[in-house]
Structures are given as structure tokens and as C-alpha cells.
Request: fold
Amino acid sequence: MSEEIMYADLKFQDSSKTENGKSGIKAPAAPPRSWQCRVVALAVFCLLLLAGLGILGSMFYGTSNMQMGKLNKLQSFKEELQRNLSLQLIENMNSSVKIRNLSITLQKMATKLCHQLYKKYPEHKCKPCRKRWLWHEDSCYLLSQQREDWQTSEQECQNLNASLLKIKNKSVLDFIKSQTTDFWLGLSPRKNQGSFEMLKEKISSSDWFINNTNGFSGEMYCGYRYSEYVYYTLCTERKKFICEKLANRVKIENTLINEEPDGFT
Reply:
């Protein structure tokens, strides 16, 4: 009996040694507590970081929407200003057209009124021509008091910023018939005398002088008016002449003057 107990005890001890000999590897030691704290802190930090990013994203989204709203309002305000400006420009253009039309109408009325005053008072202050010049339609005419050759006559007119008379329409022809009958015309000089021509047939002629006297000489022939006809004679002969130039605009305020000009009776 004692032998069996000893044998069992020995066997138990051997089996314990054998089990310990089979494992041979120690169990890992438990991690220190400080590392566990660090892991937890890192996890909390990551959560806080994610929460912060979420908050920042929400703030950015809200700010973006706010800024977009302001941009849209500014864009709408800009478009409204452009529309108002366009309407204002159109209105100004319409007003300018109305003002221009009114100005043209007033100018025509003033010109007609001045014509009536001119018939009664040839030197009225509204007259758009200088003293001693005759006024017809939109031109002024000056009848010379002396006789000159054709070239001198043309030069005299140029000195007055005018030119020798050119009869290019029936209205001027009818007007000039009441004036002196024998005077130089602004026709281009030519080498041959030729025959006389009806003055009314010269209205649409291309012979009217255009300020080009290249090759001019005293042996050339120049045209002059006599009665209803145009004759050509040597340009060196001396005749009266008529200068013409564009009239100034009638000044509206001058048509409203009640005083009679000097020399009126």
C-alpha cells in the first residue's frame, strides 16, 4: 500500500515535469497600463479631430452658401442696374432726337421769319450775311462795284472766302435775273470763243469752274452773263462780277430783336 502511494506521487511529479518540459515557452507578460492609456487618448484625439473636421466642414458649407447668396444678390443688383442704365440711355436717346427735331423746327421757323424781316429790312440783325451782301436761300451774294478781268475777279472773291457766281439751279437763275446784267461767271476758261448759249441750259453743265486755273493765260476765253445768255470773251476784258458763299445759320435770338437796325426808316 505504501509502495503504491509513493509510485503515484512520483508519477505525478514526473508528469508535472514532463508537462513543464513540453511547453518550454513562457506566457507573454501583460502590457503596461501606461500604453493602454496612450491608446485610449489617441482614440479620443482621433474622435475629437473627426468631430472638429465635421464642425469646420459644416461652417465652411454654411459660409459658402452665405457667400453664394450674397454673390447672387450682387449679380441680380448688377443686372438691375444694367437694365435701368439701358432704359435711361434709350430715354436719353429719344430725348436727344426730340431735342434735335425741335431745334431743327425752331431753326426753320427762325429762318422763315428772318426772310420776312429781310424783305422789309435788308440789313436786319437776323440776316446771316455780312453788310452789302444779298441773301438768297442758303447763300450770300456780293455784287462788285468795280470792273476787273476774270482772274482778278476770281481772286477778289477768294479773298472774301467766296467764289465767282455759279448758276446751278433755276432758283439762283431767277434770283440773279433781277441783278446787274453784265458780269463774269464762275465758268472754266477755254481756248476757243465759241458761240453764245442759253443761260438756263448751262445750269447742269460741267463747265462751272472748280478752282483749277492750271494752264490759264490771258489769251483764253471766259464766260459772262448778258441778259438770258452766256457769252465768251477774252479773260483780260474788264467786267463786274458777283461773289457767292454759304450763308451762316440764322441766329434765333436775332429774330426776336424789336429794335430797328441802324439806317432803317
The first strand starts at residue 134 and ends at 136. The chain has a mean pLDDT of 80.
